[in-house]
Each structure stands twice: as structure tokens, then as C-alpha cells.
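Q: What would this chain look like folded?
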Amino acid sequence: MDVTLKETIKVAKGVFLLSLLYVFIALVFGFLDKALLYGIFFGSVFTVLNFRLLSLSIKKSVTLDPSKAMVYAGRNYIVRLVLTGVVLLVSVKADYINVIGTIIPMFFPKFIILYQNTRKGGI
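A: My prediction, written as C-alpha cells:
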């Protein structure tokens, strides 16, 4: 199994655990509803797929010569940015998806990576 897939799996597991924690906190504080659950699910799935697209883009970029790598990475960045915009737009427009429930999981990979690096003594 290649390194990018391993890291994606680690992040996916972390996103799943943080999403469960998010659901638990919403349940405890009494603001859990179907729209929030849909938002958490939607945001979490998108976040993992977005992270996978990023890892595949980086993996391919390092094999290209620098000028082509910049164009390729830039193009993929724009694609991921547009996809994020579409996900947020769908979340805003759909009454059955909570926007905050969608947005918060988008930060989970950052938390997971920071946590992993601090555990290893990195950063």
C-alpha cells in the first residue's frame, strides 16, 4: 500500500472519530437533529475525498518537472476549491443539510495532522 493511501486512511479514521465526537457533543447539548447529522455526514465524506484528491495531486506533482508540476498543482487546487464551493453552496441551499454541520468537519484533517505531528514530537 502506498504512503498516500495510508495517510488518507489515517485521516479518514480520524475524521470518522471526530465526527462521532461531534454527534455526541450535539446530542449532549441538545442540538442534534436530522439536518445536523446530514451536514456532518456530507462534510465528513467530502473532507476525506478532498484530502484524497490532494494526496493524489501531490503524488503526481513530485514526478513532473517543476514548470509542469506548478501548472498541474495549481489546476488541481482550483478544482478542489470549486468542489468545496459547490459543497458549501449545496449545504446552504438544501434545507435538510445543516451548513455548520458541513463546515466543521472540513477542519478535521488539520486537527488530525496536527495531533499526529505533536504525538511524534514533530512540528
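The chain has a mean pLDDT of 93.
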